[in-house]
Amino acid sequence: MVGSVAVGATCGPEGVRLGLSRAVLVAAGEKVLAGEQPRRAGLYGFRNSFASGGCAFLEAGTFGIESFGFAYCPDGDGRRPNTFD
Predict the structure, then answer these.
(1) pLDDT tens across 17-59, in order?
(2) What tens digit of pLDDT does each residue of 64-74 get?
(3) What letter does residue 62 receive in the DSSP assignment?
(4) What span, in angstroms and rounded, lies between the C-alpha atoms of 74 and 6?
(5) CA–CA separation, 33 vs 23, rounded Å?
(6) How many Cα atoms sit within 13 Å of 14 on the Cβ side?
(7) How buried is 56 (Cβ within 10 angstroms: 0-12 exposed, 13-18 middle, 19+ buried)?
(8) What is the 8-class DSSP label of residue 25?
(9) Total Cβ atoms within 10 A of residue 14
């Protein structure tokens, strides 16, 4: 798979949810880069998404300690391409 998806979470074990949702998160990132605004991908709902610098950013969760998000960079992030962080 080309690209990378990164996640930052402030609560809960996200590893299982992330693994189950990987393919649809990549697809959601592609949609953002194409100008769409996905509201859901796998086990995650999004409240906002935007593209910047060739990467897609998807904000999920609620405000406060449950906030988290995803970044999708089809060319990798420059450090560890083709990985989850």
Answers:
(1) 788 888 999 999 999 999 999 998 888 888 899 998 888 998 8
(2) 666 788 889 88
(3) -
(4) 11
(5) 16
(6) 19
(7) buried
(8) H
(9) 16
What strands lie across the sheet with 4-8, from one edge to the other? Answer: 4-8, 68-73, 55-60, 44-52, 40-41
Q: Compute CA distances 24 → 13, 41, 56, 64, whole Å.
A: 19, 5, 14, 25
Q: How many helices (H) and strands (E) does the chain have?
A: 1, 5
Q: Which residues contact 73 (CB under 8 A, 6 or more apart)?
A: 3, 4, 6, 54, 55, 56
Query: What tokens appear for 56 in the block?
Result: 């897609």
C-alpha span between 77 and 66 (Å, rounded):
25
The mean pLDDT of 4-25, rounded to a whole number, is 68
pLDDT at 6: 53
